Amino acid sequence: MEWSQKIFKKHDRKDFEDLTYTIFQYQMKHCSVYSDFVNALDRTHPSSLEEIPFLPISFFKSKKITSDELLNKAEMTFKSSGTQGIRSQHFVKDISIYESSFNTSFEFFIGKPASFVILGLLPNYLEQGDSSLVYMVSNLIEQSTSKLSRFILGSTAEIPRIIDDAKSEGRQVLLFGVSYSLMDLVDLDIDLSSCTVIETGGMKGRRKELSKSEMHKVLKKELNISRLYSEYGMTELLSQGYCKEDLVFHTPSWMKVVFRDVSDPFSLTTGVKSSGLNIIDLANVYSCSFIATDDLGIKSGDGFKIIGRIQNTDIRGCNLLIE
C-alpha cells in the first residue's frame, strides 16, 4: 500500500497512532536532519505520541528537511512569505500527496470545488511566487470549471460583477483571501452577503494587527458576510485546518495538534491555558511530520483556537492575528 493510501484513509485513534509510529521510524531512518535532532535529545524510542520530539519550525529556514535519498528530487519547492527575513523552504517529493491532502480537507470542511465560482485574493503570495497557498487555490480554481473563477490580480472593483455573473450561472462565489486584502475591501463598500469567504494569512505588517474575533466582526459587519471561514495552514505543513463562526479550528484525521509549555518546549500541556502548538501532519511523510510551530493556542472542545504568536518570532503568513 502506498503512503497516500495509508495517510488519507479514515483513521480511528489506534490507526492514527500506529501510522504515526511507522512514519516516525521512517523519518528517523531517511531524514538525517530529523534523525540528528532526535538523537541529540536521546529520545529515539518514544513509548507514546507525547514522547515523539517535535522539530522547531525554524529548521525549515536553514536546513533541507527531506528524505535524504530525495534531496535533489523534489517535484516542487514551496517557500514561505518571508515577510521579515529568510524564507522557509519545503521540498515536496510527491505533489500528489499535497493535492490529496488539501482536496480531501476542502471537500470535507467546505464543499466540492466544482459547486463554486472560486476567486483568489492573494496579492503578496502571487508576487513572491513558490507559494503552497497559491498552488492550492490555483488547483481549486481549475476544479471549479467556471470561466469566472480566477485570481484577482488588479482592481478588486470587478468582484461585484463576478458575483452577479455567478448568480446567473446558478453558482455561489467562494472568495479565498489574505486577511489584509479582505480588510481592504471594507473601504470599497463591497457586498459579499451571497459569498462564502475564507480568510487566511494574517496582516503581514500591512495593517494594524487585530484579534481574529475582532477582525471577523469587522468583516461580517462591513461586508455583510454570513459565511466566513478561516484556514490554518503554512508552508511547512501539507495539511490544513478550518474553522467556522465559532473560530474553533478542526483538523482532518491525519493531522493532530499537541499543546506544549511555552517556557519548556519538551513539556506538554492540556491546552487549557495558552500553549505552543505542536503539529503532527502525516502528509509530511517525505519531510518531517512532527513540527513545533511558533503559534499560541488553546484547546476548545475537540478543536483549538489561535490566540497569537510566541514572542520574538517572525511575522509570517500563517493565519496569525496577535491578541
Could you characterize what this model shows?
The chain has 323 residues and is of the alpha/beta class. It folds into 2 domains: 3-69 and 255-309, no CATH class; 98-243, ANL, N-terminal domain (Rossmann fold). The protein is globular and about 60 Å long. The protein contains 10 helices and 14 strands.
For the biggest sheet, the summary is: 6 strands, mixed
Radius of gyration: 19 Å
Low-confidence stretches: 314-323
Choose one word for the global shape.
Answer: globular
The CATH class of the largest domain: Alpha Beta
Class derived from helix and strand content: alpha/beta
CATH fold node name of the largest domain: Rossmann fold
Q: Write down the overall mean pLDDT.
A: 89
Number of domains: 2
Please provide the count of β strands.
Answer: 14
Put the structure in a nutshell:
The chain is α/β, with parallel strands linked by helices.
Notable characteristics:
323 residues, alpha/beta, Rossmann fold, 2 domains, six-stranded mixed β-sheet, globular
Record the SSE blueprint.
Blueprint: H1 3-7, H2 13-30, H3 32-41, E1 55-56, H4 59-62, E2 76-79, E3 89-92, H5 95-109, E4 116-121, H6 123-128, H7 132-144, E5 150-151, H8 159-169, E6 172-178, H9 179-186, E7 196-200, H10 212-223, E8 227-232, E9 241-243, E10 255-261, E11 264-268, E12 275-281, E13 290-300, E14 303-309
Parallel strand pairs: 1-13, 4-5, 4-6, 6-7, 7-8
Antiparallel strand pairs: 2-3, 8-9, 10-11, 10-12, 12-13, 13-14
Helix pairs in contact: 2-3, 9-10
